[in-house]
Design a protein that fits this description.
The chain is of the alpha/beta class. It has five domains: 11-106, PriA, 3(prime) DNA-binding domain (GIY-YIG endonuclease, 3-Layer(aba) Sandwich), CATH 3.40.1440.60; 118-178; 198-381, Rossmann fold (3-Layer(aba) Sandwich), CATH 3.40.50.300; 383-428 and 491-624, Rossmann fold, CATH 3.40.50; 636-722, Alpha-Beta Plaits (2-Layer Sandwich). The protein is 30% helix and 23% strand. Strands 10-11-9-12-15-8-16 form a seven-stranded parallel sheet, sandwiched between helices. A six-stranded parallel sheet has the order 17-27-26-18-25-24, with helices on both faces. A five-stranded antiparallel sheet has the order 2-1-4-3-5. Strand 24 (509-512), helix 14 and strand 25 (537-540) form a beta-alpha-beta unit. The longest helix has 16 residues, at 198-213. The structure holds adenosine-5'-diphosphate and zinc ion. Residues 446, 448-449, 451, 464, 466-467, 469 line the site of zinc ion (ZN).
């Protein structure tokens, strides 16, 4: 990689964390040498902020005398040319100011200065006047002449630190500075390779070849749940490590999928560095810094890990590539899976997209030959896939007031008798999604959102799942004042748990959901308890569907399979297919006979039929044909514009103005229409949908439309969502 030569000019462009379209110009003070990518502190208005020296020459014609100077050059590796091109690319594609994308890279300012060294001790030649057994052990250990930390040495010698301190006082140690410790030891590609089955060996070879060859390659790894995709992509990770390259493994719910990290540790003899929002600020700093200087070799992270400053990235793995959690819909709207492919392309490295149920887009790209396609159709070690059946809720309805049908209850009972575990899955938190008054019909709604309040009975609260508003469940109806006539409508997992406890009072039942008190720590413990078999019946939301291995789980019951089909989302069938395949895939992963029962009112729906028959091929063909007919992605392009404002009229008016500014051509604009979620946090929302042919320049069209429309005024805000995943 050719290194960037210093900027010849004394005035350089610096990308600053503002919504400005262009870098700003700054003077380089005498004696400071910056290159493109250098991270610097610059004055911006009254503040000092971090920015990146950018490529090219400044476009400004401002007299250098009037320009402000760079305040400080951080002692930090400059962002690589690939990273700078990636920032530019993401900015252009998502219609975001490049500085706002750079901001995602520069979010850890404390990491730009080198980590402070650690105080340490090294043995001198002096001998203590008085010798004890404890002192002897310490001196024996320190004889090698290497540096030790005070506590490390005491711990290793099995003595208290006061013994070490006493020896230091006696002149037996010099104080030295130790290099800061690595976040994780270097993973060893040869540490403990798995013995792969024939299928797995073929798959691993196909993934390793492009890594070894170097250069850009994208490969879809499509394998049924339990086929060993993780074991197989670990081989590609090993191949990249042997090439001396860094690796990024992206996981959709990393805070909760610790088992993957443990498996990594077992395979490579060291854990990967983690990157997600639950890290302490100190740890974030250390990881960022050590990724930048190359000491961290493998990162397992959430979508934001894509913006870490890798210097020699050789492979990106996107695990569960179809997962909706990869789409960020906040500030910068981006899809981390798609941007991972872009980053691999720019950096000339490999990217592996792994899933049992790939997104239609990825599946199509693989079929069209744009991505390599590696398949594994059998579970590892002869484990059979669960036997899947639809339970027709019209024919075998639950008893009055219940939500579990007789066939599902029977299956739970039999599973209990065998001493095995059941999972009842319902993707709805809380007790009931709607509460109303039986006397006057009053429904409890969020004051700031167009959403019903969800009762959370364990907490005794009515909660809004969009803004977090909550209020205690009242005794009397606030509308008509009648006491004790509120009814809960529909089930949430807490209500299913209630039914389970009634039906199976002796079973050990556990509710798993992201909003239970105790946060991630408690959830991890609970997941561990399930894995160990300390729980008989798990009632959970989608977080139990992701990547866990529960060896004793042999029954998965889907309480309401139709839930995701109700809204008008064009991806509803695909999402349902993916989620239900994933959740039923939790059953029977260690070879026991297992089953999945899917409660539905529409067993004839293509998504249900595809899950039950296991005929994914037919389902994808059907979905791809449907997309082609509708000119939807990947056969066409979509973008959404969301206009929000404090008043409904303002939002609608600006939406209309945008529409009126749309250039003529073959791109269509639909709307503005009031969003299905018309009110969030007190802001009124309107949506426009922009739909064009595959070859259309969507970004140019949107840019024209936004610049030609009047500037948003007052409380009006406009967000652009390229390739929208959500239509709410
Ligand atoms: P997937 O990600 O495809 O669902 P996993 O990689 O989680 O599958 O593998 C499923 C289970 O099978 C895991 O418990 C894993 O440890 C085990 N497994 C898969 N392949 C092997 C192998 N070659 N040797 C030992 N265990 C394996
Ligand atoms: Zn709300």
């Amino acid at each position: 990689m050719p290194s960037d030569s210093p900027h010849p000019s004394r005035v350089v462009p610096v990308l600053v964390p503002t919504p400005s379209e262009r870098p700003y110009s700054y003077v380089v003070p005498d004696g400071m040498a910056v290159v493109p990518g250098s991270i610097v502190a610059i004055p911006l208005g009254p503040r000092l902020v971090a920015g990146v020296v950018w490529d090219g020459v400044t476009a400004d014609t401002v007299d250098p005398v009037k320009l402000r100077a760079i305040e400080h050059l951080y002692e930090c590796p400059p962002l690589t040319r690939e990273m700078r091109r990636f920032i530019d690319w993401v900015a252009r594609y998502t219609l975001t100011a490049p500085g706002m994308v750079a901001r995602m890279v520069l979010r850890v300012p404390a990491a730009f200065d080198p980590e402070p060294p650690m105080p340490g001790l090294r043995r001198t030649t002096a001998e203590p006047e008085r010798m004890t057994a404890a002192r002897g052990r310490v001196l024996e250990l320190a004889r090698d002449g290497f540096g030790w930390t005070r506590s490390g040495l005491a711990h290793a010698a099995g003595v208290s630190v006061s013994v070490v301190d006493g020896l230091a006082k006696a002149g037996c140690f010099d104080e030295i500075a130790l290099p800061p410790p690595p976040v994780a030891a270097a993973p060893d590609p040869e540490f403990s390779a798995a013995t792969l089955s024939d299928d797995q060996t073929h798959a691993a070879e196909a993934l390793c070849a492009p890594v070894e060859a170097g250069g850009y390659a994208a490969t879809l790894l499509e394998g049924v749940t339990g086929s060993g995709k993780t074991e197989v992509y670990f081989e590609a990770v090993a191949a990249a490590l042997k090439q001396g390259r860094q690796v990024l493994v992206m996981l959709p719910e990393i805070a909760l999928t610790q088992s993957v990290l443990e498996r990594f540790h077992d395979r490579f003899g060291a854990p990967p560095a983690e990157w997600h929002s639950d890290l302490s600020p100190k740890m974030r700093e250390r990881v960022w810094r050590q990724v930048a200087d190359g000491r961290v070799r493998v990162v397992a992270g959430a979508r934001s890990a894509l913006f870490l400053p890798f210097r020699e990235l050789g492979l990106i793995v996107v695990d569960e590539e179809h997962d909706p959690a990869y789409k960020q819909e906040d500030r910068v709207f981006y899809h981390a899976r798609d941007m991972a492919v872009v980053r691999a392309h720019i950096g000339g490295c490999s990217v592996i997209l792994s899933s049992a149920t790939p997104s239609v887009e990825t599946r199509y790209n693989a079929e069209a030959g744009r991505y390599g396609h590696v398949r594994m159709e059998r579970r590892y070690a002869e484990a059979a896939l669960p036997d899947l059946k639809a339970v027709d809720m019209r024919r075998t309805p639950p008893a009055r007031g219940g939500f579990l049908s007789p066939p599902l209850l029977k299956a739970v009972e039999q599973t209990l008798e065998r001493g095995e575990q059941s999972l009842l899955f319902l993707n709805r938190r809380g007790y009931a999604p709607l509460t109303l008054c039986r006397v006057c019909g009053h429904r409890f709604q969020c004051p700031d959102c167009s959403a019903w309040l969800v009762e959370h009975r364990f907490r005794g609260q009515l909660m809004c799942h969009h803004c977090g508003h909550h209020e205690p469940v009242p005794q009397a109806c606030p509308e008509c004042g009648t006491l004790d006539h509120l009814v809960a409508c529909g089930p949430g997992i807490e209500r299913i748990a209630e039914e389970v406890v009634q039906r199976f009072p002796d079973a050990r039942a556990l509710v798993l959901s992201s909003d239970m008190l105790g946060g991630v720590k408690r959830l991890r413990l609970e997941l561990e308890a399930v894995e160990k078999g300390d729980v008989d019946i798990v009632i959970g939301t989608q977080l139990v569907a992701k990547g866990h291995n529960f060896p004793n789980m042999t029954l998965v019951g889907v309480v309401d399979a139709d839930l995701g089909l109700a809204n008008g989302d064009p991806r509803a069938a695909e999402r349902t297919f993916q989620l239900l395949s994933q959740v039923t895939g939790r059953a029977g992963r260690t070879g026991k006979k297992s089953q999945g029962l899917i409660q539905t009112f529409q067993p004839e729906h293509p998504a249900m039929r595809a899950i039950v028959s296991g005929d994914a091929q037919a389902f994808y063909e059907n979905q791809i044909a449907e997309r082609e007919r509708g000119h939807l992605p990947p056969f066409g392009r979509l973008a959404a514009i969301i206009v929000s404002a404090a008043s409904r009229a303002e939002a609608e008016m600006h939406g209309r103005a945008l529409r009126a500014a749309a250039p003529a051509g073959d791109i269509m604009v639909l709307g503005p229409a009031e969003a299905p979620l018309a009110l969030i946090r007190g802001r009124h929302r309107f949506r426009l949908l922009v739909h064009g042919p595959q070859r259309a320049d969507m970004q140019a069209f949107l840019r024209r439309m936004i610049t030609d429309a009047p500037r948003p005024r007052g409380s009006v805000r406009v967000s652009v969502d390229i390739d929208p995943q959500s239509f709410l």
